[in-house]
C-alpha cells in the first residue's frame, strides 16, 4: 500500500538569521553525503531520463518540469533524452525506471515523489545520478528537491484577505499531504493579517489532475459562500468556476489566466530550468554527488505570478510589500504562537518554524477545515 502522506510530489536548514543575500540562494536541508562524485560523462554520451506523474500538456505541474527539460536540451544538445508521461503509482513505475537504466541513462529525474517504487531501482543502479522531486530519502546516488512555496502563498493569501467580501476562502486539494497543509495554512495566515475572521474550507478530490472533480469541488465551495478559490491542481477547472460565478481565484504551477482572466488573481509559479541545467552540468563534469535535499527559494524557482488584470493596485502593493520584506530582509511570518485546528499550541511563542518544519507540515491551523491525514 502506498502511503499518501508521502506522495506529496510537489514539494532544509531554517531561515532563522538568514541574510538578504542568502534569501536568494537555494536552501539545503541536507548537504551532500560523504560520497565520491560520479565520473564525468561526455555530453554526446549522456543519456538523461525524465519521468512525470501527468501529461506535459497539463499546463501545470508536469508542463513546468517539461519546460525545465527543454532548457536542459538547449544547454546540452548533444545528449540523448528519455521522457515518460503519466507514470502511475504502481509496479509500472518501477518497470519504467528500470527500463531507463537498461536504456543506458546515467542521470534520471523523477519529477514527482514515488518513494519505494523508485528506490527499488535506484538502490541497485548506483552509477546513475537520481533525483526525486519532493524526495525524502536521499542516498549517495540520489538527491531530493522541491520549492519553498509557502512564502509566495502567504503573499497571495494577503491579497485574498483583502479581496474576499465574505471572508470564506475555498481550497481544492489533491491529497492530505504536507504541500497541501503548508499551502492552506500559509494562505489563511496571510489572509488573516488583513481579515482576522477569515476561514478556509478545503475539499479533497484525491487526484492531482481531475478537471471534473476540481470543477465539482470549486462549485461546492462557491455554493457554500466561498468567494475566493485556491488550490494545488494541475489544471484550470476551478478557475473556470470562479470566472463563471464572478468570484476570485488563485492558481498553482503556471500562468493560466486565459481560462478565467476576470477571476484570476495570481498563481504560485514554478521554474525548474536553472536547477536542472546546473545539476546536469555537474554530472557531466564529474562534480555531482547525491545525498542532498534542496528547496528552491522564492525568487529562484518559485514566486507569485504577475497580478491579474482586475486586482486593485492597492491590494497588489500591500501584498508585495510583504514579499519585498521576505526577499530583502529574510523575514518569515511563520513564528509562534500557532495553534492547530483543535486549539492546541503546536508552535510555541517566539519559535520560528524551520524550513524542515514547513516542508513537513502535516496539521491544519485554526480556521482551516476539511483536511485529515
From TrEMBL:
Database matches in InterPro entries: ABC-Purine-Binding (IPR052910), PnrA-like (IPR003760), TAT_signal (IPR006311)
DNA-binding recorded as keyword: no
Highest taxon above the source species: Bacteria
Entry GO terms, CC: plasma membrane
Domain ABC transporter substrate-binding protein PnrA-like: 50-294
Keywords: Lipoprotein, Signal
Record-linked Pfam families: Bmp
Keyword Lipoprotein: yes
Name of the featured protein: Basic membrane lipoprotein Med (Substrate-binding protein (PBP1-ABC) superfamily)
Organism: Kaistia hirudinis
Amino acid at each position: 500500500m502506498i502511503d499518501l502522506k508521502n506522495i506529496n510530489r510537489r514539494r532544509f536548514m531554517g531561515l532563522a538569521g538568514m541574510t538578504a543575500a542568502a534569501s536568494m540562494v537555494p536552501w539545503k536541508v541536507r548537504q551532500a553525503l560523504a560520497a565520491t562524485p560520479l565520473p564525468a560523462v561526455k555530453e554526446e554520451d549522456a543519456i538523461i531520463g525524465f519521468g512525470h506523474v501527468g501529461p506535459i500538456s497539463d499546463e501545470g505541474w508536469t508542463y513546468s518540469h517539461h519546460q525545465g527539460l527543454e532548457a536542459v536540451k538547449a544547454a546540452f544538445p548533444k545528449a540523448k533524452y528519455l521522457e515518460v508521461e503519466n507514470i502511475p503509482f504502481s509496479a509500472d513505475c518501477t518497470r519504467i525506471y528500470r527500463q531507463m537504466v537498461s536504456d543506458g541513462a546515467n542521470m534520471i529525474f523523477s519529477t514527482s515523489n514515488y518513494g519505494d517504487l523508485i528506490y527499488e531501482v535506484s538502490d541497485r543502479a548506483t552509477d546513475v545520478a537520481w533525483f526525486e522531486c519532493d524526495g525524502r530519502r536521499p542516498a549517495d546516488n540520489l538527491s531530493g528537491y522541491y520549492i519553498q512555496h509557502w512564502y509566495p502563498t502567504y503573499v497571495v493569501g494577503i491579497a485574498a484577505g483583502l479581496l474576499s467580501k465574505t471572508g470564506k476562502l475555498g481550497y481544492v486539494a489533491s491529497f492530505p499531504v504536507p504541500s497541501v497543509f503548508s499551502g492552506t495554512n500559509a494562505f489563511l495566515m496571510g489572509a488573516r493579517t488583513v481579515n482576522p475572521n477569515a476561514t478556509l474550507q478545503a475539499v479533497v478530490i484525491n487526484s492531482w489532475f481531475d478537471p471534473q472533480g476540481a470543477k465539482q469541488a470549486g462549485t461546492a465551495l462557491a455554493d457554500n459562500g466561498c468567494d475566493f478559490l485556491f488550490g494545488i491542481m494541475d489544471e484550470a477547472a476551478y478557475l473556470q468556476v470562479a470566472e463563471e460565478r464572478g468570484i476570485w481565484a488563485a492558481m498553482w504551477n503556471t500562468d493560466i489566466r486565459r481560462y478565467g482572466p476576470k477571476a484570476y488573481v495570481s498563481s504560485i509559479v514554478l521554474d525548474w530550468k536553472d536547477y536542472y541545467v546546473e545539476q546536469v552540468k555537474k554530472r557531466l563534469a564529474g562534480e555531482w554527488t547525491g545525498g542532498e535535499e534542496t528547496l528552491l527559494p522564492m525568487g529562484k524557482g518559485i514566486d507569485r505570478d504577475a497580478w491579474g488584470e482586475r486586482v486593485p493596485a492597492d491590494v497588489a502593493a500591500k501584498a508585495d510589500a510583504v514579499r519585498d520584506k521576505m526577499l530583502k530582509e529574510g523575514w518569515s511570518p511563520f513564528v509562534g504562537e500557532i495553534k492547530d485546528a483543535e486549539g492546541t499550541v503546536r508552535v510555541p511563542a517566539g519559535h520560528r518554524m524551520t524550513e524542515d518544519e514547513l516542508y513537513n507540515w502535516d496539521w491544519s491551523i485554526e480556521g482551516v477545515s476539511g483536511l485529515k491525514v
